[in-house]
Every structure is written in structure tokens, then in C-alpha cells.
Amino acid sequence: MKNWKSITLFIVLGLLVLIGLDGFYIVDETEQVVITQFGDPVGETITEPGMKMKIPFVQTANFFDKRYLEWDGDRNQVPTKDKKFIFVDTYARWQITDPLQFFKRLRDERGAQSRLDDILDGETRNAIASHDLVEVVRSTNRDPETGATITEIVEDSLADIVVGRDSIQTAIQQLANKRASDLGLEVLDFRFKRINYVEEVRKTVYDRMISERNRIADKFRSEGQGEAARINGEKERELKSIQSEAFREAEEIRGKADAEATAIYAEAYDQSRAARELYNFTRTMESYGKVFDEQTSIILSTESEFYEYLNSIQD
Fold first, then answer.
1. Which of 130, 236, 259, 300 could bridge to 307 as Cys pair (CB 3.0-4.6 Å)?
2. Are 174 and 106 within one domain?
């Protein structure tokens, strides 16, 4: 009898433990819960954190994340409006906004990811096919720098865009939210991760880009050579002008110096000539004094130098 009581007590205690374990659950701050009974949701969504109760073995707690969730699209080949085939890689961020509706329509995050693949990939294809490549790549119009002389350097970047990349991304996000309005989720952000040409045309495009840049480089080089020639011409002209002016000033200085030297030479020559005449006269007189005495008589020609000296003394 005692054994039956012990067994019964043990069974009751076990059932109470199981009921306690299955009848309580904890809601984390990052979670929200939908309670289902035999697979059908019952009650309101539980969003407040803490320990909660449910009917054990009858009701089930389905947990859903409150945080922003990631969606990473597949790399798809898509044609643009101007018939350029490109690979588009996208990503998005989404959130479960209505867990009850989310559970009814999608059940779990795996189902949501699959549904988002259909919605976002489809809207991306439609948007890319409706716009030119330049609209998908760029967000704003570009203006050449003020005073630029070679507009060709930005010619391929100055095409006017009407919509732009940012607007296309926003449009895809809005259209996706319209299609997902009854799914209990919201796409919070959508972006193009990478856009690239397909392999078949990438080499051709790169060759064209290289050829275009070489043409621009040649134009730069040509204008640079022309500018260098102009600068060198101005340099030579200024150099010759400076040399000519320096030569003129040097000749003027040399002429003034020659004139001063000539004047000095002339003055010195005049002074030395008078000195030589005086010296010759003195030496001549001394020689005559030694040659002649009081008894000597001489006959002088009017053309002799001594006669000229004597005649000049009398004058």
C-alpha cells in the first residue's frame, strides 16, 4: 500500500514539474510571441519581456525577432532600358511589424526570406529594365569645373539623369512594401550592393573606356605641348629682350668709359708734349754751352731749331 502511495506521489510530482516547465515561458527583450492552440493563433501578440504563462501541452509559444533582419539578394543578370546587360547584387533590411499576421501568412523567417526573394528580386528587375544604366549608377547630375578647357574629360559623365540611383532604390522599397503590406513585415531599407557588366561585354566596355581615356590623355598632352611651346616662345622673347637691353646698356657704359679714357689720354698727351719740348730746349742749350765759347762765331740759318729758340725768346 505504501509503495502505491509513493509511486502515485512521484507521478504527481513529475506531472507538476512537466506542467510547470511547459506552462511557463520567458520573453526576451528582443523577442515577441504569438500563442497558438492546436496550430491556430489565439490571443494578442505578446511584446513585453518577462515570464509568461500558457496552457501546458495545449498551447505553443512561437517566438519572433523584434530586431532588424537581413535580406541578401541573389546576383542576377538584368537588362537595362538601353539594352545593357548587367549583374545586380542587392541587399535589404526588414522587420516583423505584425507577428500575428506574419505567422498566419509566412509562419517563420525562412518563409519570409523566400517571399522577399520573390518581391524584391521582381521589383529590382522591373526597375532596372525601366531605366538606363546611367540612371541606375548615378544619383545626381554633374557639372564641369568652372573654367575647364577640355569638356571631353567629363563628357561621358555629364549625361543628364532624371531619376537616379537613390530614387530607384527608394521606389523599389516602396513597391515592395505595398506588395508585402499583408505579410506582417516592412522593408526598412533597400540598396544596390554591386552593379557590374556581364562577362561577355565587360572586356569590350573596358577597351572602350581605355580608348576613350587615351583619347582624352592625347588631348591633354597636345594642349600641354601647345602651352609649353607658348611658354618657351615667351621665354625666348623675354630672354632676347633682356639680352638686347643689357647689350645696349653695356655699350653705353663702354662708350662713356672710352670717352673718359680718351679725354684722360689727351690731357696726359698734351702735358707730356710740353714737358718734352722743355726738356729738348734745355738739353740743346746745355750742349751749345759746352760746344761754343766766347771766341766762337756761328752763322745760323733761319730754318735751324736753335734760331727758332732764340727767335722765340726774343718774342
1. 300
2. yes
Q: Is the pTM of this model over 0.70?
A: no
From first to last of its 315 residues, the chain has per-residue pLDDT tens of: 556 666 666 665 655 555 656 678 889 999 999 999 988 899 889 999 988 888 887 888 999 999 999 999 988 899 999 888 899 999 999 999 999 999 999 989 999 999 999 999 999 999 999 999 888 988 887 665 544 454 444 455 566 788 889 999 999 999 999 999 999 999 999 999 999 888 776 777 778 778 888 888 888 888 888 888 889 888 888 888 888 888 888 888 887 887 787 777 666 656 666 666 666 667 666 666 666 666 777 776 666 666 666 666 555
SS3 letters across the chain: CHHHHHHHHHHHHHHHHHHHHHHEEEECCCEEEEEEECCEEEEEEECCCEEEECCCCCEEEEEEECCCEEEECCCEEEECCCCCEEEEEEEEEEEECCHHHHHHHHCCHHHHHHHHHHHHHHHHHHHHHCCCHHHHHCCCCCCCCCCCCCHHHHHHHCCCCCCCHHHHHHHHHHHHHHHCCCCCEEEEEEEEEEEEECHHHHHHHHHHHHHHHHHHHHHHHHHHHHHHHHHHHHHHHHHHHHHHHHHHHHHHHHHHHHHHHHHHHHHHHHHHHHHHHHHHHHHHHHHHHHHCCCCCCCCCCCCCHHHHHHHHHHC
Total domains in the fold of the chain: 2
| Residue 176 and residue 156 in one domain | yes
Q: Kindly state whether residue 122 falls inside one of the protein's structural domains.
A: yes
Is residue 75 assigned to a domain?
Answer: yes
